[in-house]
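ARCHIVE CARD
CATEGORY: sequence design from structure
SOURCE FIELD: tokenized fold
FIELD CONTENT:
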């Protein structure tokens, strides 16, 4: 890398920390909304258009944002760790909460799903062994929201040789520099969204997304691209310049493509062509895939521009991000299980579940996880300093 393109890896990227924290707390609003949208473990009997549009909009870019931020963090982590140290850290940070959460936090979610159905009278102790009968959808075993950790771990291993290449590449005429030059051209950075679009158009109709890792190729490649792109965007300062320069055009294109995707979605549902390989379905997924990239560029560019400074609260929240992610859905669905039975309107239910889950999750983290080293290990955190 030439001096004018080199990056300063010693500088802490506060925007990455802020965006990760904000993305985690957006999960509360998103998963509360999903309680009023088909597909959650339990569902309110009523929904409305605002909630449905909110879920569809956020779903386009929310989890891709987690993976691109993870890729960015990986790039900087390898600045002060060897490959071996990095892999050991990944095992501690990802596998421990994945195992703990799958054994203790996911079964209650599936139990509440069955409990909400008429005629189910088993106690939780009677149900628990049946959670392990077979992988979903044949049986009950699943990762639920912890699938993110199950995907991120193999991505960290698969992408490691490529990330190391990004960091050590010489002379500067190789992959990183050529890609950075492309992205420095007007609107060039938008071309990086084409792999997203093509992958979604080719794979999504055949693999709509069970998030089981072994038979989920559409999600696998979409999120792997996001992880690799996160590493790539940190490898040359020209990427940051291009992201900042194109954040407003990205928002404009995002709005346009969101409108196109919504129109295609309505037609696909009306003509019963949403699933399977047909021109309408593939066009919809192509537009959605590219639109994911537009919104990621806008969010990353906005973070770069406005989230540079730190704050005392950030140190607390960035450490809490992973445990809160692991805890939030079980607590949220547990509250929602009772609240959706209330004889009140949608919005009082939404607000009570949303705010109640935020408060209960933060209290659980602070009182039962953050203060105890054994719990910190189980939630992928570093030990408390002596």
């Amino acid at each position: 890398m030439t001096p004018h393109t080199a990056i300063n890896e010693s500088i802490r990227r506060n925007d990455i920390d802020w965006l990760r924290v904000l993305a985690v707390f957006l999960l509360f609003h998103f998963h509360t909304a999903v309680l009023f949208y088909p597909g959650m473990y339990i569902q309110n009997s009523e929904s409305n258009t605002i909630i449905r549009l909110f879920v569809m909009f956020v779903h386009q870019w929310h989890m891709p944002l987690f993976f691109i931020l993870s890729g960015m963090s990986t790039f900087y982590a390898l600045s002060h760790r060897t490959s071996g140290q990095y892999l050991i850290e990944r095992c501690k940070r990802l596998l421990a909460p994945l195992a703990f959460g799958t054994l203790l936090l996911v079964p209650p979610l599936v139990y509440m799903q069955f409990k909400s159905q008429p005629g189910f009278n088993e106690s939780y102790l009677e149900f628990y062994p049946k959670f392990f009968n077979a992988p979903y959808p044949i049986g009950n075993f699943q990762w639920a929201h912890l699938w993110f950790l199950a995907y991120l771990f193999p991505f960290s291993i698969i992408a490691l040789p490529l990330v190391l290449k990004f960091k050590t590449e010489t002379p500067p005429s190789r992959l990183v520099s050529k890609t950075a030059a492309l992205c420095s051209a007007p609107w060039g950075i938008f071309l990086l969204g084409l792999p997203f679009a093509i992958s979604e158009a080719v794979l999504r109709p055949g693999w709509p997304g069970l998030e089981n890792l072994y038979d989920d190729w559409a999600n696998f490649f979409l999120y792997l691209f996001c992880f690799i792109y996160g590493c790539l965007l940190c490898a040359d300062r020209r990427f940051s310049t291009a992201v900042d320069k194109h954040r407003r055009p990205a928002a404009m294109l995002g709005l346009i493509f969101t409108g196109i995707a919504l129109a295609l979605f309505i037609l696909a549902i009306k003509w019963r062509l949403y699933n399977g390989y047909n021109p309408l379905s593939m066009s919809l997924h192509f537009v959605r895939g590219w639109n994911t990239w537009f919104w990621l560029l806008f969010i990353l560019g906005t973070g770069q521009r406005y989230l540079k400074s730190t704050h005392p609260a950030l140190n607390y929240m960035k450490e809490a991000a992973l445990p809160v992610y692991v805890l939030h859905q079980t607590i949220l669905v547990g509250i929602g299980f009772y609240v959706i039975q209330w004889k009140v309107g949608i919005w009082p239910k939404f607000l009570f579940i949303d705010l109640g889950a935020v408060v209960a999750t933060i209290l659980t983290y602070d009182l039962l996880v953050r203060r105890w080293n054994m719990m910190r290990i189980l939630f992928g955190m570093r030990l408390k300093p002596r």
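CARD ANNOTATION: The radius of gyration is 21 Å. Residues 291 and 301 are 15 Å apart (CA to CA).
SHELF: design records, drawer C
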